[in-house]
Design a protein that fits this description.
Elements: E1 2-6, H1 10-19, E2 22-26, H2 29-35, H3 39-49, E3 54-57, H4 63-76, E4 80-85, H5 88-99, E5 104-109, H6 112-121, E6 125-128, H7 130-135, H8 140-153, E7 159-162, H9 168-176, E8 181-184, H10 186-193, H11 196-217
Parallel strand pairs: 1-2, 1-8, 2-3, 3-4, 4-5, 5-6, 6-7, 7-8
This protein binds SN-glycerol-3-phosphate (G3P).
SN-glycerol-3-phosphate binds next to helix 7.
Length: 220
């Protein structure tokens, strides 16, 4: 399984890359807006930092505008993946872009049949939003599992990205259903790292060590 970082924040990316656990980055317009920076220069900077796919989303809903925006984004760096919303125009754009060799990530996928259509249209990645489904009392993970099975059964090359991840259990459950990738916010990555017994264990080791050291130094 691979982990991507779901952020447009340079400091978070720098920190997570240092851990050696991140294979790519996903952004969306809401995440980019938070950074209050020029979109293209931000994407360029992220692409130079990350030795893997970086998803950047189109804003047009019109088919032709979507294509031209996608072509522009793909020129920023070779590792740009163009994020396309799950609409009729989005599917048509993915069909054209995949024939041009431009990698795509179909976003805002909320059902397995939507994901199947995106994969058949030639999407490189599909992003089911599990947290937002859980928010409305649907089982987000069911869609991830269905999509992974479909890609496997029919030997489709599209990779499933578990997106809208809210907590470590989403990552664990994604791994249990053999999801290819989970894209995680930085705070979820930190939550995956932490365990109170690790902190207690470190403190106990240090205390025991200090006690013996003090005894030896005082000649006891
Ligand atoms: O990867 C999609 C993600 O950014 C959306 O997450 O928490 O806004 O549903 P959220």
């Amino acid at each position: 399984m691979q982990l991507f970082l779901d952020t447009a924040n340079i400091e978070e990316i720098k920190e997570a890359l240092g851990w050696g656990v991140i294979s790519g980055v996903t952004t969306n317009p809401s995440l980019v807006a938070r950074e209050k920076r020029d979109f293209k220069s931000l994407v360029k900077e992220i692409c130079h930092m990350v030795p893997g796919p970086v998803s950047a989303e189109v804003l047009s809903m019109d088919f032709r505008e979507m294509i031209s925006e996608a072509r522009e984004l793909s020129k920023i760096a070779p590792n740009v993946v163009v994020k396309i919303p799950m609409t009729k125009n989005g599917l048509k754009a993915v069909n054209v872009l995949s024939q041009e060799g431009i990698n795509t990530n179909v976003t805002l996928v909320f059902s397995a049949t939507q994901g199947l259509l995106a994969a058949l249209a030639g999407a490189t990645y599909i992003s089911p939003f599990i947290g937002r489904l859980d928010d409305i009392s649907n089982e987000g993970m069911d869609i991830v599992q269905d999509l992974v099975i479909m890609m496997e059964n029919y030997n489709l090359p599209t990779r499933v990205i578990a997106a809208s991840v809210r907590h470590p259990m989403h990552v664990l459950e994604s791994a249990r259903v053999s999801c290819h990738i989970a894209t995680v916010p930085y705070k979820v990555l930190e939550a995956m790292l932490r365990h109170p017994l690790t902190d207690i264990g470190i403190q106990r080791f240090l205390d025991d060590w200090a006690k013996v050291k003090n005894e030896l130094e005082s000649g006891m």
